[in-house]
Automatic annotation (TrEMBL):
Keyword annotations from UniProtKB, A to Z: Carbohydrate metabolism, Fucose metabolism, Glycoprotein, Glycosyltransferase, Membrane, Signal-anchor, Transferase, Transmembrane, Transmembrane helix
Highest classification ranks of the organism: Eukaryota, Viridiplantae, Streptophyta, Embryophyta, Tracheophyta
PANTHER family attached to this UniProt entry: OS02G0726500 PROTEIN-RELATED, RHAMNOGALACTURONAN I RHAMNOSYLTRANSFERASE 1
Protein name: O-fucosyltransferase family protein
Protein source organism: Trifolium subterraneum
GO BP terms in the entry: fucose metabolic process
Record GO cellular component, one term: chloroplast
Amino acid sequence: MDVRSEGNQVRYYDKFHAPVIPRNRFRVWFIRVCLSIVLWTCLVQLMTVNELWHFNFFSGFTSRIYNTTQRPLQGDVRFAQPPPTLLPPRNYTSNGFLRVSCNGGLNQMRAAICDMVTIARLLNLTLVVPELDKKSFWADHSGFEEIFDVRHFIDSLRDEVRIVKRVPKKFSSKNGYSTLKMPPVSWSNEKYYLEQILPLFSKHKVVHFNKTDARLANNGLPIELQKLRCRVNYQALKFTPQIENLGQKLVQILRERGPFVALHLRYEMDMLAFSGCTRGCTNEEAKNLKRMRYAFPSWREKEIVSEERRSQGLCPLTPEEAALVMQALGFDRETHVYIAAGEIYGGERRLAQLRAAFPRIVKKEVLLALDELQQFQNHSSQMAALDFMVSVASDTFIPTYDGNMAKLVEGHRRYYGFKKSIVLDRKKLVQLLDLHQNGTLPWNNFADSVRQVHEKRMGQPAYRRVIVDKPKEEDYFYANPHECLCEGTKCDNLLDPHNSSQVR
Ligand SMILES: *[C@@H]1O[C@H](CO)[C@@H](O)[C@H](O)[C@H]1NC(C)=O
Ligand SMILES: *[C@@H]1O[C@H](CO)[C@@H](O)[C@H](O)[C@H]1NC(C)=O
Ligand SMILES: *[C@@H]1O[C@H](CO)[C@@H](O)[C@H](O)[C@H]1NC(C)=O
Ligand SMILES: *[C@@H]1O[C@H](CO)[C@@H](O)[C@H](O)[C@H]1NC(C)=O
Ligand SMILES: *[C@@H]1O[C@H](CO)[C@@H](O)[C@H](O)[C@H]1NC(C)=O
Ligand SMILES: *[C@@H]1O[C@H](CO)[C@@H](O)[C@H](O)[C@H]1NC(C)=O
Ligand SMILES: *[C@@H]1O[C@H](CO)[C@@H](O)[C@H](O)[C@H]1NC(C)=O
């Protein structure tokens, strides 16, 4: 929307400065100029309103909870990017083809794609567009191109690495080429890839990584690799226009109602079955979750004591706990809350308390017409992409579990201007919740303690830090390579795609 209006500005500006005007066309010209002035004025007005509107969003809000930084936000960068200018492709001799099959949910795969591009760059390989997991818990059959804008992905990285849609036929097994299928060793650094993986390409033209989660170390990598990883995450991975449009529509509907909180309520069946957290579930539900865990071979841990897990801070907050914590943090009944999640396990029964505390709770299913969502409905990854967009654009983001989605969204919010994310300390929270619920800790003391515990966990700009700087211990909950931490002015050109000196 902003892009188009910029185009208009340029056009009208050009007309304004048209050098010689033939007399007989003077009237037409005059009318045009008048029209241009009127349109131009409208535009400027509109933009001012738009700015004010954003201003209200990000700084005019009273509650301490919503306090964001003074750094001006460029609206939503993702919605207002200038048309991409293609950089010249990098000229290098490819050592072979890298095929990858990503595993896990949408956000785990997203993190993996960032890693795989980086590895392909490091080893001078040609990357084949990653294959997405179709056998994960929710069995979404979406391919890469049904979730991400594949053309943009290929084009925007071409100054770094060659990406192709498939391995050329001439390298097929029919022509005597063998593909080596293997999972790379988890948490490896660049030395492993240079010393162990690169030599494999002299024998096999194609290597296929059939597992991608956590295959590249988080820490101690050269900064240029970290930067590339981040560039993939923030710039090269864009959702398809269908997803972007519907996501934008959701954001617009929400914004028309006022500032909103996105609550990533990770209280979904797969999470509970996987983690073994069953607090608040009926016996029947707990049994079902356990059965599901046993049925899923890749979930190694089978016997889990829910309460033990919970006391270690390893369980997602329940919807009831989330309600109490949000109230303690000072959110009131008027707060607009968007639930960024799939189906909540236990359904409306489990949402009752949260709904009572925050009547203005909504989900995408309520905000959009049935037919708008229909094409996404059976594709959990595409639905997750919509929640991702809304979460990134929200005024306050609260994840109830620190999984991949929480980390990636927090990172994007920092990248787009450090919008507030509240990183809950679940280990301390469950202690406080238990004390409050058995009557030991009255409400006011409970609320005070909850606020105290989270004083430094609300995404203040003080936590901006360059990855290469050693984070202080209390910052470790932010230390994720896909977040591209940076500080002050260093943020401004950390990921400038036109500054090639940075990534090389
Ligand atoms: C927001 O925080 C800044 C410092 O980080 C402070 O100066 C300002 O008063 C705060 N605003 C509100 C509304 O709390
Ligand atoms: C790529 O690099 C090679 C060797 O440096 C050079 O011979 C070739 O002309 C270059 N190709 C292009 C398109 O620049
Ligand atoms: C990758 O190519 C560059 C030249 O484009 C070369 O300097 C570098 O050594 C190559 N690295 C590997 C691992 O092949
Ligand atoms: C990956 O490939 C290896 C070697 O072929 C195989 O043993 C392993 O089971 C595969 N893993 C997956 C997840 O397909
Ligand atoms: C989604 O899947 C369900 C069950 O598999 C099916 O009944 C329904 O028709 C599907 N909906 C769409 C829009 O494809
Ligand atoms: C409440 O719970 C805490 C910790 O779970 C426990 O130490 C305390 O004794 C309990 N108090 C009552 C009154 O049950
Ligand atoms: C490019 O990045 C480098 C390193 O961050 C910086 O020193 C230089 O000023 C940047 N150049 C431009 C044109 O922004």
